[in-house]
Each structure stands twice: as C-alpha cells, then as structure tokens.
Design goal:
This protein has about 150 residues and is mostly helical. The protein has 5 helices and no strands.
C-alpha cells in the first residue's frame, strides 16, 4: 500500500467533522438542551405523569431528538449531516406545531412542554436552535464530502 492509498483509507474511516467552528457551539447548546429536556421530562413523568401526559411525553420526545442531533453532529460525515438536517427540520416543525397549539388551545397542555409557546420557557432557544443548525449543516455541506 502506498502512502497515498493509506491517506485515502484513513479518510474513508474517519468521517469529516461537523463540529468545527460554530458546529462546536451547536453541540454545546444541544447538549444543554438534552440535559434540560430529559431531566425535566424524567422527573415529571416519574412524579406527576397523570397531570399532563401529553406535555411530559412531548418534552421526552424533544430530549431524544436533541440527543440524536447532538450525536450526529459529533459523529460527523455526510450521512450524519443529512440525518441531523432531517431531524432539525422535524424539530422545527415540532416547535412550530406545539408552539402554535399551546397558544390556540392552552387547555390541552395543563403544564408546559419544552416547545410550549415556541420555547419561551427556554428563552426561545428551541425555535432558534434548529434554524441555526440547519443553516450550519447546509453551509457545511461543501466541507463534508464522502
């Protein structure tokens, strides 16, 4: 095996990084959101699930989505970039749907979710984060070639 072939093999084994520059900030924010959403929903589901099952389940779903996006950003590579982009779009759709739903019919949610009122309880990070991430993932497309 020549030196050039070894370089190509090494490049194939290690996916291109998505967490350089602003990507590292996204990983940090998503990591914080994972901890916040998962711990909040775990406590609420464990102690008071009967009070607002939909709200608490949605917070748990948000935590899982945040965790998956964090994982794909850290993993890197083109497949991970595409998966993160799809999840960010689904996350944004969830925030917009749940945010609108909580404004239209607040009685459906006796307690807030992570995505209630477009993430107002989290300083609107839940609505801003997927938009920022999708921008970064689209911009990083050229840097992440298989």
């Amino acid at each position: 095996m020549t030196s050039g072939e070894a370089d190509v093999t090494a490049a194939e084994e290690k996916p291109a990084r998505l967490i350089s520059g602003p990507g590292m900030l996204l990983v940090w924010f998503y990591g914080v959101m994972v901890v916040g959403a998962v711990s909040r929903s775990a406590y609420q589901i464990g102690t008071d699930f009967h009070r607002a099952p939909l709200a608490y389940a949605l917070s748990a779903v948000a935590g899982v989505v945040y965790g998956f996006i964090t994982y794909t950003l850290v993993r890197g590579g083109e497949r991970a970039r595409r998966a993160a982009l799809v999840c960010c779009a689904a996350e944004l759709a969830g925030v917009l749907i749940v945010g609108t739903w909580t404004l239209i019919d607040s009685s459906a949610f006796p307690d807030a979710t992570v995505w209630s009122d477009y993430g107002m309880g989290y300083i609107f990070i839940p609505v801003l984060l997927p938009i920022s991430a999708m921008y970064w993932l689209r911009k990083s497309r050229n840097a992440v070639k298989p």
